[in-house]
Amino acid sequence: MSFRLLSEPMLSRSPIDRAEELRRDDAALAAGWPTARLLRVDSQGRVPVEDGRVALVPAVDTADSPPGDAVFLGIVDDHHVWAVAVSALAGEVTDLRSFGDVLTESSAGLVVTAVALLNWHRSAAFSARDGSPTVLSSAGWSRTSTLTGHEEWPRSDPAIIVLVHDGADRVLLARQPMWPERRMSVLAGFVEAGESLETCVGREVGEEVGLDVSEITYLGSQPWPFPRSVMIGFAARADAAQPLSFNDGEIAEARWFTRDEVRTALAAGDWSASEDAPLLLPGSISIARAMLESWAALQS
């Protein structure tokens, strides 16, 4: 049994022009500042929202020129867009986990990029090479050591996410210990040093639920800025008769579900749906949702 994603994951659809060629062009960035828009992000990754859209403010309302702690996100509708970290926000605020499914593709793309970049800046104040303080450079797309001038760039941590099926009508879903009962998803884990993506799929499934997998196939990917990952989706086949064993403590429970059970859960909503539902699945911003929807659409 093989399948592909029926739609591109939501957080991968960003139409933003990142305008990489402008990041070191101080004159061009300054010229674009009078009509630029600014996205404010608090320490919890939340942004202001109005009518289901990210609320951007005129950049010149906050400063006469790009401040040293702002990051250039790119160009949307002929306007430069920047982001800046703030300590607090007033009014309605949201984050990608709780409100991402109603944001436009442009809005979601801006928030994903801003949150990932600002998370990196918070943890990269000192050079990983020489320990000296670093400052923002390249319009927020790098940091430079104040001692040696060594430049460092944002890091994305690769993680696999895998839908394990039995080759027929069942899929394996699992719950992490911190999740409430009935909230389940597919398996995931970070890629280790020196490891291929396919090897990681096999290792993570074995460590988390004790199953051997085969027929590993790539499905798609999406950014996941919690704090700065990229999720790489796969499908893999396992024998449903093989006993489950939770070997690394990351899984509280796991079991096989039929396609009809998954279809019912998808129709009921997501993790925020009624607590009476026997199975609650991830929301639309997660690639896990796209993977499950695509698998559930197969004909038995």
From TrEMBL:
Keywords: Hydrolase, Magnesium, Metal-binding, NAD
Domain annotation Nudix hydrolase: ranges: 154-279
MF (Gene Ontology): hydrolase activity
Originating species: Rhodococcoides corynebacterioides
Gene3D superfamilies on file: 3.90.79.20, Nucleoside Triphosphate Pyrophosphohydrolase
Record family assignment: Belongs to the Nudix hydrolase family. NudC subfamily.
EC number: 3.6.1.22
One Pfam family this sequence matches: NUDIX-like
Protein name, as recorded: NAD(+) diphosphatase
Catalytic activity, as annotated: a 5'-end NAD(+)-phospho-ribonucleoside in mRNA + H2O = a 5'-end phospho-adenosine-phospho-ribonucleoside in mRNA + beta-nicotinamide D-ribonucleotide + 2 H(+)
Cofactors, names only: Mg(2+); Zn(2+)
